[in-house]
Amino acid sequence: MVAYGAEQRVRWPALRAGWRTQTFVHWAFPPEAVQALLPGELTVDVYEGAAWVGLTPFVMADVRPHGVPAAVPGLPTFAETNLRTYVRHRDGRDGLWFLSIEVACPLMLAARTIGAPYNPGTLDVSRDGNGVSYTGARWGGGASYRLVVRPGDPIRPAPRDVWLTSRWRAYTRRLGLLWETPVEHEPWPLADAAVEVLEETLTSAAGLPAPRSEPVVHFSPGVGHVRLGVSRPCVPGPRPS
User: Fold this and answer.
1) Does residue 238 lie within any of the structural domains?
2) CB crowding 117-149: b at 16 or more within 10 Å, else e
3) 92 touches 44 (CB < 8 A)
4) 141 lies in which domain range?
5) For residues 56 and 69, what is the distance between their CA atoms, to the nearest angstrom?
6) Is 1 contained in some domain?
7) Contact 197/147 with Cβ under 8 angstroms?
8) SS3 call for 34
9) Which element (helix H / strand E) includes 27?
């Protein structure tokens, strides 16, 4: 079972930040459709027999190295949107695999050195009354999205809500190596959300078929104490039998 709170302490983070105004839009897919997009060391994780892919736009706030307080003026704050799925390593540990990452801050492209699939673009997050709007388009054309949601009442997370939103490591692949990046933050405060507009080409650009079901949607005001650990190569584990 996925842990609601962080599975490990990240005592010496490479970066600290807040993840604010985050929406989770999840579709169920046939496991084989998602497995085809993963490296051999990873197996798609399933819930109720389905693989899940999440479109997760948010604001990356007050990005800073360890030891710099969030109150320092001028810290980078920018929009980011992830297209992600859920996986297990050969050693049995679960995590995230990013199919794409859209980002409004070119400095984050440095993470391509460990295989993080960052794409620079023009992104925006805004509020209008009770609605939250997210838009983004890659520089030079290509994939784009527009999402408008109306957050509802806070919820007590059920097991599926936790499974869809709580992961404590991300995997990437670069130069023949699988890399692991640990993360720690407080549990997500979640609310229901209704979709008013959803137009996107990120899933097709990633090589996925068109979603066949209505999405499961959550909204969160965010978490403020994100600690991203130093990425390190994974130790090879036994192949699944």
Assistant:
1) no
2) bbbebebebeeeeeebbbbbbbeeeebbbebbb
3) no
4) 15-233
5) 26
6) no
7) yes
8) helix
9) strand 15-29
Residue type at 232? Answer: R
CA-CA distance, 42 to 146, in Å (whole number)?
Answer: 30
Nearest to 6 by CA among 154, 162, 111, 160: 162
The number of beta carbons lying within 10 Å of the beta carbon of residue 182 is: 21
Amino acid, single-letter form, for residue 68: V
The tens-digit pLDDT sequence of the chain (241 residues) is: 677 888 889 999 999 999 999 999 999 999 999 999 999 999 999 999 999 999 999 999 999 999 998 889 999 999 999 999 999 999 999 999 999 999 999 888 888 999 999 999 999 999 999 999 999 999 988 899 999 999 999 999 999 999 999 999 999 999 899 999 999 999 999 999 999 999 999 999 999 999 888 999 999 999 999 999 999 999 765 544 4
Number of structural domains (the chain) is 1
User: Is residue 110 in a domain?
Assistant: yes
Contact 165, 182 (CB under 8 A): no
| Full DSSP string of 76-145 | --EEEEEEEEEEEETTS-EEEEEEEEEES-GGGGGGGGGT--EEEEEEEEEEETTEEEEEEEETTS--EE
Q: Can you tell me the distance from the alpha carbon of 95 to that of 182, in angstroms, rounded to the nearest whole number?
A: 9
**One-letter identity of residue 221:** P
What is the domain-level CATH number for residue 29? 2.40.400.10
| Domain annotation covers residue 67 | yes
CA angle 228-179-9, nearest 5°? Answer: 35
